[in-house]
Automatic annotation (TrEMBL), chain A:
InterPro entries registered for this protein in UniProt: ABC_transp_permease (IPR001851), LivM-like (IPR043428)
One Pfam family in the UniProt entry: BPD_transp_2
Highest classification ranks of the organism: Bacteria, Pseudomonadati, Pseudomonadota, Alphaproteobacteria, Hyphomicrobiales
One annotated GO molecular function: branched-chain amino acid transmembrane transporter activity
GO cellular component, one term: plasma membrane
Annotated PANTHER family: ABC TRANSPORTER ATP-BINDING PROTEIN, HIGH-AFFINITY BRANCHED-CHAIN AMINO ACID TRANSPORT SYSTEM PERMEASE
Protein's name according to its UniProt entry: ABC transporter permease
Regions crossing the membrane: 7-26, 38-57, 64-80, 86-106, 113-133, 212-233, 253-276, 288-311
Keywords: Cell membrane, Membrane, Transmembrane, Transmembrane helix
Species in which this protein is naturally found: Bradyrhizobium centrolobii
Intracellular or extracellular location(s): Cell membrane
Top-rank lineage group of the source organism: Bacteria
Record membrane topology: Multi-pass membrane protein
TrEMBL record, chain B:
Pfam families in alphabetical order: BPD_transp_2
An MF annotation (GO) of this entry: transmembrane transporter activity
Membrane topology (UniProt): Multi-pass membrane protein
Localization per Swiss-Prot or TrEMBL: Cell membrane
Gene Ontology terms: biological process: amino acid transport
The keyword Signal appears for this protein: no
Transmembrane feature ranges: 17-40, 47-67, 73-93, 105-124, 150-170, 191-212, 232-260, 267-288
Organism: Bradyrhizobium centrolobii
Family membership noted in the UniProt record: Belongs to the binding-protein-dependent transport system permease family. LivHM subfamily.
Listed InterPro entries: ABC_transp_permease, BCAA_transport_permease
Protein name as catalogued: ABC transporter permease
TrEMBL record, chain C:
Protein name: ABC transporter domain-containing protein
Lineage of producing organism: Bacteria, Pseudomonadati, Pseudomonadota, Alphaproteobacteria, Hyphomicrobiales
One Pfam match: ABC_tran
Organism: Bradyrhizobium centrolobii
CDD domains for the chain: ABC_TM1139_LivF_branched
Gene3D superfamilies listed in its UniProt record: P-loop containing nucleotide triphosphate hydrolases
Length: 317, 299, 245
């Protein structure tokens, strides 16, 4: 990156971050919540971008990682008294990592559509297990629990308000973004991109690409699980609907709409999708997916580089 | 594992095993009808059609409407097949043709979008309450202690007949030869004057029509609702992969295999959990024989 | 220049076409003409753009600049299958037989067209089986099981099913035994006598000089030399210069 672009990038980053920090102070309650939710879905979409945009593997199974993050957090919050925020995150990450290891081990041996179908089927396996194992997971109704306090042990402990929750989510998402950005620019990220461009050549150069792919799926699954934990904390429930593959499909939609391989794009895509849903559901009620689906199809055909890519081209003209 | 196998088997009467066999073959044949459309589309066009289940579902709805208007099940079957074939052609021309030559993954995305639109359209048009298709005849015959409906056997036979007709069409018809030539070498097919874009549209339309036909045939057994396509498309995907992508014979064998397996599995676990068995079969197939279980080992 | 027909337009006219493969510029303004019923040879070393020229005529590669005219009509933007129906037959370098289709089915890909009566179909098939008796013997065998020479015959026979006004022949003798080569040579003459034009891309210089009326020689994506075939000898300096034989 040229020095000028670095300055522009960090300026834009700081401005947007500042706006997101101030936002809950000026927004009404509904939109404050909405913004927090965009950040959480954005994190999920960003985690999937590691696979779609960088390694060229389209995952249709991110709902499993997200959902297991939710149920992991639920386990911590229901079983450990008093409920502890950090323990919820830890449990959620462990659950997501377990699933991710399982999926990564099997699915990474396959490529392209086979990878997509396998991840989809894996997420459905977890869906069926969670849906039918009523004694443990609450089955169709899911689990409800209380929100833990925002605490740093030994320092302070305060109950979450919607503002502090927003800031907490913002901090986690921002840290995740910076970490993922760092990772994608590291040698590891470069190898992933080279796998996407030409797998055979990357293998021929001597990279153990299976190991790289497994690491990529694990990494992606961990951040997806983190998003699941945040969602569980925000909404105080875990439900099998969030493991169902339609959620995975929506995540792919966020990526395509926003622009894959950009990390920021998927967040933009999630925001755009949720705004569309909000806007259309006023006119179309629960059938908002009809216009949203049509817009998505049009974007797949006419704007394959996504909103971000489109804006970038438009700015460069 | 606390219970030995013999004890498990003893707990299941022999008649019940036979009944489950018949059930498994019947569902397997319907599944074969759904999956052969999907495998045709995949094998020939490299398109993973996520909207296949929705075409199945819409076919069933068109069947419901036509049946209400005409009172004749067979008219409903034909009308639904043709209507959805036309819809399939329209979908292909508007959304898939522009994606020709792009990464096959983009077709998954586009058809996923189509499936969302169609599913919610059905919910909007027809509401969440399941509709019923009255079977064309209600006779039974005695299968051990059960009154087994003739209709179920007829569906299996009809599915076999439709698949057989497809096979004859592909084998001997001019269009069938065009379709096979297109599968093997698109560019050369065009150089021989075969209108490849129209061939692809026709293939998609045939696949859609077959999905619709299975929707109408299966409607009387399960009831028609907007989400009925989801289960089927997943199962059909499993069949297509297990049977070997684009391999018609393999898809049929795999359909019956999956049908039987889930049928037997539901002797021990709930049908919702029986699905997991098919999932596991799929994953094992992909890992150990990614070209499909029911195809000869490639040289 | 000899034109086989009184009509003023040549059958195929290629005007200054440029093509790109990815970022590499493969044709740098190729121009040539083929008259009705004329056999024209296109010579040049490997990779100078001969095959690409044929593909550009057939619409398989789209020129970014320039025009291809068929009987005076621009055809550059027509889809390939329309060109085949207009009367351009294509026999590609690697033959591209439909390997899983039988010989008969391979032929039917070109034969089952609108406007061809059953009697005409029979006639065409008989003619082809007459030229290539081996194809008649193997009519129900899968194309992929034929030998290289048989596949080449099938590729030519298949193109003949279109009753083409011109056949684009890409290295028909490549990798064939001498006996097969002379058979291909005869077929070119037969097609010529029947009135079909041929644009022949070949590495076999003597055969090309014998079979053709005119010759174009290409180098690095352009036509460098154009001559009447009867005035060229294998030993000529131009042949040495561009073909290095």
């Amino acid at each position: 990156m040229s020095a000028r672009r670095v300055v522009v990038y960090w300026t834009a980053f700081s401005v947007i971050l500042a706006l997101l920090i101030v936002a809950p102070l000026v927004l009404p309650e509904f939109w404050r919540r909405f913004l927090t939710e965009i950040l959480i879905w954005g994190l999920l979409a960003m985690s999937s971008d590691i696979l779609i945009g960088y390694a060229g593997m389209v995952s249709f199974g991110h709902s499993a990682f997200f959902g297991l993050g939710m149920y992991g957090a639920a386990a911590a919050l229901l079983l450990v008294k008093p409920p502890d925020l950090w323990l919820a995150i830890l449990y959620g990450l462990i659950a997501a990592a377990g699933v991710a290891a399982f999926v990564a081990y099997f699915a990474t041996r396959l490529r392209d559509i086979y990878f997509a179908i396998t991840t989809l089927i894996f997420s459905q396996i977890f869906y069926v297990i969670i849906f039918t194992w009523t004694e443990v997971t609450g089955g169709e109704n899911g689990l409800t629990f209380g929100r833990p306090a925002l605490a740093i042990p030994g320092l302070f402990s305060v109950p979450f308000t919607s503002e502090t929750l927003h800031w907490f989510v913002l901090a986690v998402v921002t840290a995740s973004y910076l970490a993922l950005r760092r990772i994608t620019q590291s040698p590891f990220g470069m190898v992933l991109q080279s796998i996407r461009e030409n797998e055979a050549r990357t293998r021929a150069i001597g990279y153990p690409i299976e190991r790289y792919k497994i690491a990529a799926v694990m990494l992606s699954g961990l951040f997806a699980g983190l998003a699941g934990v945040l969602y569980a904390i925000q909404n105080r429930f875990a439900a099998p609907d969030f493991v169902f593959f339609l959620i995975s499909g929506e995540v792919v939609i966020f990526n395509v709409i926003g622009g894959i391989g950009t990390l920021v794009g998927p967040i933009v895509g999630a925001a755009f999708f949720l705004l569309l849903r909000e806007g259309f559901s006023r006119f179309f009620t629960e059938y908002y997916l009809i216009p949203v689906g049509l817009i998505f199809i049009a974007m797949v055909i006419f704007m394959p580089q996504g909103l971000l890519g489109f804006m970038r081209r438009w700015l460069n003209q | 594992m606390g219970i030995p196998l013999e004890q498990l088997l003893q707990a299941i009467p022999f008649e019940q095993l036979l009944i489950q066999t018949v059930n498994g073959i019947v569902t397997g044949m319907i599944l074969a009808l759904v999956a052969s459309g999907l495998t045709l589309i995949f094998g020939i066009m490299d398109v993973v059609n996520f909207a296949h289940g929705e075409l199945f579902m819409l076919g069933a709805y068109v069947g419901v409407i036509t049946l209400a208007a005409t009172g004749n099940f067979w008219v409903a079957l034909v009308v639904a097949t043709l209507t959805i074939a036309l819809l399939g052609a329209a979908i292909h021309v508007t959304t898939l043709r522009p994606l020709l030559g792009r990464d096959p993954l983009t077709t998954i995305l586009a058809t996923f979008g189509i499936s969302l639109v169609l599913q919610n359209y059905a919910l909007w048009q027809f509401g969440p309450v399941a509709r019923k298709i009255q079977e064309p005849f209600t006779g039974h015959f005695t299968l051990f202690y059960l009154d087994y409906p003739w209709y179920r056997l007829v569906i299996a036979l009809l599915s076999a007949a439709i698949i057989g007709a497809l096979w004859l069409f592909l084998k001997f018809g001019t269009y069938g030869i065009w379709i096979r030539a297109t599968t093997q070498d698109r560019v050369m097919a065009q150089a021989m004057g075969i209108p490849v874009p129209s061939v692809l549209t026709v293939v998609f339309a045939i696949g859609a029509g077959m999905a619709a036909a299975s929707g109408v045939l299966f409607g009387p057994l399960v009831g028609v609702n907007h989400a009925m396509g989801l289960d089927w498309v997943l199962k059909a995907f499993i069949v297509v992969v297990v049977g070997g992508m684009g391999n018609l014979g393999g898809s049929i064998a795999a359909s019956i295999f999956i049908g039987l397996m889930e049928s037997y599995a539901s002797l021990w676990v709930s049908p919702a959990q029986a699905v997991i068995f098919s999932f596991v079969v799929l994953i094992l197939t992909l890992l150990f024989r990614p070209t499909g279980l029911f195809v000869p080992t490639p040289k | 220049m000899t034109l086989g027909n009184a009509s003023t337009d040549p059958l195929v006219k290629v005007e200054d076409i440029h093509t790109y493969y990815g970022k590499s510029h493969t044709l740098h303004g190729v121009s040539l003409e083929v008259g009705r019923g004329e056999v024209v040879g296109l010579l040049g070393r490997n990779g100078v753009g001969k095959s690409t020229t044929l593909k550009a005529i057939m619409g398989i590669v789209r020129p970014s600049q320039g025009e291809v005219l068929f009987e005076g009509r621009p055809i550059t933007h027509l889809p390939t299958h329309r060109l085949a129906r207009l009367g351009i037959g294509y026999v590609p370098e690697d033959r591209r037989i439909f390997r899983l289709l039988t010989v008969m089915e391979n032929l039917r890909t070109g034969l089952d067209r609108r406007g061809v009566t059953d009697a005409r179909k029979k006639q065409l098939l008989e003619k082809v089986y007459d030229y290539f008796p081996v194809l008649a013997e193997r009519r129900n065998q899968a194309g992929g099981t034929l030998s290289g020479g048989e596949q080449q015959m099938l590729a030519i026979a298949r193109a003949m099913m279109l009753e083409p006004k011109i056949i684009l022949l890409d290295e028909p003798t490549e990798g064939l035994m001498p006996r097969m080569v002379s058979q291909i040579r005869q077929i070119i003459d037969v097609l010529h006598h029947e009135g079909a034009a041929i644009l022949l891309v070949e590495q076999n210089v003597p055969l090309t000089l014998e079979a053709s009326q005119r010759i174009y020689i290409m180098e690095k994506g352009v036509v460098r030399h154009h001559a009447v075939a009867s005035k060229l000898r294998v030993s000529d300096a131009v042949i040495h210069q561009y073909l290095g034989v």
